[in-house]
Amino acid sequence: MKKMIDNPILKGFHPDPSIIRVGEDFYLATSTFEWWPGIRLHHSKDLIHWELIEYPLNRVSQLDLRGVGASQGIWAPCLTYDKGVFYLVYTVVKSFYCNMYDTMNYLVTSDNIHGPWSEPVPLNNFGFDPSLFHDEDGRKYMVSMVTDHRVPKKYIGRLTLQEYDPIEQKMIGPVKDIYTADKIFLEGPHIFKRKDWYYLFSADTGTGEGHGQTIQRSKDIWGPYEMYQADFMNRESEDEAYSILTSRHRESIAIQKAGHADLVETGKGEWYIVHLCARASDKRNPLDAKKFPGERRYMLGRETAIQKVKWTENDWLVLDYQEEAQDNMPKERVSVPDLPECKYKGFPQRDDFNEKMLLADYQSLRVPMDETYLSLEERPGYLRMYGRSGLSSKFSQSLIARRMTEYNMEVSTKIDFEPDVFKQMAGLVFLYDTDNYFYLHISHDEDVGKCVTVLKAENKKYEYLTDYIPIERNREIILKAVLKGTTLQFMYRIEGGEEQWIGDEYDASFLSDEACAEGWFTGAMWGICCQDLTGFGKPADFDWFEVKDTSCCL
Q1: CA distance 260 to 30
Q2: 350-553 is classed in which CATH architecture?
């Protein structure tokens, strides 16, 4: 039996993939929004196994996310390569849930994918999702979607093109709309050239369950562009895009929200696209919800999948299922390319904090993970974390996190923490953003003393789910969360003692794209954190942190 690639290839919060091949190496970039450092980069040699490598935006001089809102920050990076130089364009969104949007577009470059990457070059700010195209004559162009704050909008969808001068490091020449539409919204555009055609490859219809991917072409980069329309593209209204890839008409399939794709050719002449996708939970929003009423909840956020594609006799791109009848639905399993298999050692489930640096898998909220609040040296074998602002802070949290990757997981940590007042807390957090989380933590109560409890935040509604449960001083504590589907349970254990389950079973499905009031572009994260609202920086020492996928054990 022929080996297959299982989708998604990057599990959990990895949206907006952009891919290139340089020789025998494939590189893939994804959005990180308000999480630091900026932009996840993965490397592969076989399109099956992917290794997380260095983040390109890892200096405050390159990226300052302090104060940005939930699901703002870094949007839709586009990675390209030309004549020995890697180019990375991206948007930094500073305000979006408002009438006028602030969408600043930048470019960084490097002659080595591992960095260091340059300081950012400002580009035009017409909209988000910029993409750089390198033409055969050496000229470079940037295409992006255009935001429109006017009421009503003049067009529902618009893409614009402008030339970029790499010598002057600035945008030059006229700005021209190459796509305008009253009914079909496009974003995430890329331009490719094949034979005599310029192809405009764009995501359509938002990023929810109606998402899809379209393709257009022109003999001139400035257009006009013709959209590919075929019989296999099922459309239920004139407002619907002609999509070469979509899951909008098949609610039963596992790979939902398919769209926002990028294209790559292997050295053997095979073609693949990577695209964002999502796997739904078994829960839905209430029918009276203010946002997305009745829609399914996606706790994992948007992930990255891969599909094999082919060119038709008429030079259009379609999914390649090696069948006579063409289809535009994503597949869970895809045939592997004709490339040697190359596996990578993944990150350990348990991090014992014995290394000199944190695992690259960790990200923090908005600010760098530096010695101002983190140390692996002050107590060898432990991560010391100094308490700072509260969990609602958009400026100075002491928190590091790893992605939720499946609907069945066990996450735990061992912590040494001796709080003196109720304003000092440390523990295990399961969060979507600063307004939505479960927090199993150690604190201090005037009547109880050192204690453990669970705090829940759901769209700024806060409640303690348990009493303040007294625990012994000067003893290390193990905190644990067990997720089965969308049901969450907590326990704690004094070192050397037995497990004590705390609280009830809780519905955690509100930690999802659809249920959070402000953000809805990231995904749920497991983290450890410490707060000291007195301002004195009380530290917590974490002996280890384990994030374990248990779906294989069911």
Answers
A1: 11
A2: Sandwich (2.60)
